[in-house]
Amino acid sequence: MNGLDNFKSFQCGECGGIVKLLTGSGRTRSLIVNFPLPFPDDIKIPTCEECGETFSTVENGEELDNIVRPFLDKLLSNPKIKYIIVDSKGNDIGVGQFDTPTLASKYIRNNKNQAGYYVKWVETDSKTILFLSSSTSSKQVDFAFEKEFDAAKDAGFNIAILNSDIFFGEEPSFKYLNNKTKDIIYRGWILKNEYYKSLERSLESKECSLLNNSYSYLYSYHLPIWYEEIRLLTPKSIWKSKEKYDRESLQENFFEALSEELIKQFPNKSVIIKDYIKSRKDEWYDSCFIPDVSDISNLKRVVSNFIERQGDFLVGGIVFREFVELKKIGTRLNSHQPLFKEYRFFAVNEKIVYACPYWMDAEYATGIPEEATKLALEAAYILKNKFVAIDVAQLENNEWIVVEINDGGCAGIPDTGSLEDFYLNLFQNL
Fold first, then answer.
1. Count of C-beta atoms within a 10 Å radius of residue 380
2. Which of 99, 118, 215, 225 is the most interior residue, by most CB within 10 Å?
3. pLDDT tens-place string over residues 237-286
4. By the 8 A CB rule, do 257 and 269 touch?
5. Which range of residues forms the domain containing residue 374?
6. How many domains does the chain fold into?
7. Does pTM surpass 0.85?
């Protein structure tokens, strides 16, 4: 350190005291405008022994920079570090967090009324929720998730936003996303698998990753995949891919053949119809429930309704599931849809982190039944998905079955649940 080795004391221009090479606390130096960095307390630098002012000269300036530069490099390499703007008393002025100190410094310079303010670093948790944007603003979350946005932020999550144009095949773009963020949870409407893969690739280009990768996402949603894993815990199901169904449906007497197939697979049983992801249970008697598969006319009506109404949103193919006698606890007035004793569980790494009743307009006893929780845990253990939603329902004989599996990020939180409790429990268990 040639400049400091040859240092000679001089008089302080601020107070008249003597400037010497001293150790001490609270001394700073800025490598970025308005962003003071601390000197180590045990390092001797030119400091006034009276007022504590530090001094830099042409001879020692580079050496002083090199003392604080490793600290700056450490900050910049840490994805948990954010930058805020504070006043002279160290109070956050409330303009939000910046990804780099340079951006925060630029904000100060571009706002003349911010003179005298400084950039400060804060450590945040890198746990991140990626919400879908509003269709009208890429900087705002979709209105349907505004309350979840607030709950997630209050729980401690970092918030990033994904452009809603991804639904139309556009390349993903992001707001407020830090590079190198791991285990991001996408929270939004169900994406087609190819769009989710596109999201995954875009995040990887930023050295980021999703908690559920594209395979896990498909594994959580497509019934033909998860059914094979937990077939002993859920009603019997058969399916036809959309391509196979389209080919067979062109044949003469197709529905007669379909009826015979269903009678063979589900003798003396009712069935429900869905695609690989969703049913239309809110249109129970028109597009979901088939009480008698031998009734060819009604079979054709319900199946045709389902396919027509799903339209371009039909995913994968057609699934027929055995209708089992579930414990009924209510009925919807408009659609006459029966409401069954059902609960939704969310599991992270095979651990149940949140559960609540499924239906708002039905009467439940207080608390989550222990047997339902045990079954959800068993399913989570078998599936081994990092973040999954498991719907469990009670049979008339009081036994429990799994009725649906969903990706944890896209599964809705029932109206009976608490958004605050959900996000707090999720945050604490990641």
1. 23
2. 118
3. 999 998 998 888 888 889 999 999 999 999 999 999 999 998 998 899 99
4. no
5. 338-429
6. 5
7. no
